[in-house]
Amino acid sequence: MCNYVFVLDTNQKPLNSCRPVTARKLLTAGKAAVYRRYPFTIILKKSVQSSNKPMELKIDPGSKTTGLALLMGSQVIWGAQLEHRGSRIKSALDSRRAVRRNRRHRKTRYRKARFLNRRRPPGWLAPSLQHRVETTMTWVRRLMNLTPISSISQELVRFDTQRMQNPEISGTLYQQGELMGYEVREYLLEKWGRQCAYCGTSSVPLEIEHIVPKSKGGTDRVSNLTLACNPCNQAKGNLDIRDFLSGKPDLCKRILGLTAGTLKDAAAVNTTRWKLYRSLKETGLPVAVGTGSRTKYNRMRLDLPKSHWLDAACVEEITKLKVLTNQSLQIKAMGHGCRQVIQMDKYGFPRKGYKPKQPVKGWKTGDIVNVVAGKNVGLQGVRIKTVRAKGNFDLRVGYGVVSASRNHIQPVHRQDGYCYSFVEL
Asked: DSSP for 72-117?
């Protein structure tokens, strides 16, 4: 069972979706043509008069992945999982900030610091968070153009981050945090017994050390800090603690047991939930909301497997649900490339010359193509990794790369900032 196919009439008016077998018959008979490959959409070659059944779009927002589901009554006819790139945006901004900061300390043309004279407008979100809202809204508007959506449902979930760490918390304990009455260093000395957490050495100068290195996503939360002597701190460097203590599994387990999980994902959902809700209201469609507990209850009551798009289908109150597809479209946000003209090395110095903005007219990195000639003939739905002015392109096949001439490839889906694949239940 595959996703239903979106249908447009000759005037690009959205009609009700049809089954894949029906779309195949229309294409074979020449009554329709392929309008879009991802999500698969056909366009009829004549105008038709039809009364559309109401469609409902349900959304399960997430920090890393957002689930989308289209329902016709109580039938799930289409599902997708939208993978965000918020972490990559943050990493790119951190890299840019480091390059600019280093430049201010070199004997080059001074770059004036401007981070103290900018005012943030009301409702401002960090770029990595704003991306989650805008990407979701991009696909909401895209689906509205492909199918007649009459209403939207959103899971408006809120995470209690303190209760996630301490289920017994209540009352004034919400205001009295873990560090109440302590300084950070004194708290760590009490917590780790005034000795090195890795070798147990005491009566030596101890340094504050990150259990999960900041270079690998670690934070400055006190639960991610420990104490280590200078030799252990230097030896660990930015290694993962599991690699550093690979020969001491019991010690590694004990240290990890004293650390709390990161709250980045919960904070991202809490921050963006109302922004997304207001953006959905601006579409002019009625927007209903549901809780996370109701979604979980519906999914368990209907005995459905855990996945983002099925969670989306279970948002709000439902009595019954019939899933007509076992396949979801996996959408991965890739971005539209880099606008930086000169590439920098890790020290902030130019490492190569100007890169042309359009090496080959009509082709871009990210285009999805079929190879119709040459030694790699037969490859279908592969993504262009590198576009070269000489006309010999690199294609990404699985985890490898192959080359093909631009004369041997045929475009399937032009680059739109996303990478597509399918996931079976």
From this structure: ETTEEEEEEEEE--HHHHHHHHHHHHHHHHHHTTSSSS-----TTS
Residues in a beta bridge with 332: 83, 419
Q: What is d(CA 29, CA 46) in angstroms, rounded to the nearest whole number? A: 13
- Which segments in the chain show pLDDT lower than 50? none
Please report whether residue 314 resides in a domain: yes
Domain membership of residue 311 as a residue range: 55-87+129-157+265-333
* pLDDT single digits (tens) 223-252: 888 899 999 999 998 888 888 888 888 888
Q: Are residues 326 and 341 in the same domain?
A: no
CATH code for the domain of 304: 3.30.420.10
Residue whose C-alpha is closest to residue 395's, from 424, 416, 372:
372
Q: What whole-number distance in Å separates Cα of residue 39 and Cα of residue 82? A: 12
Cα distance between residue 49 and residue 5, in whole Å: 19
Q: pLDDT digit string (tens) for 189-203?
A: 888 888 999 998 888
Structure confidence at residue 215 (pLDDT): 83
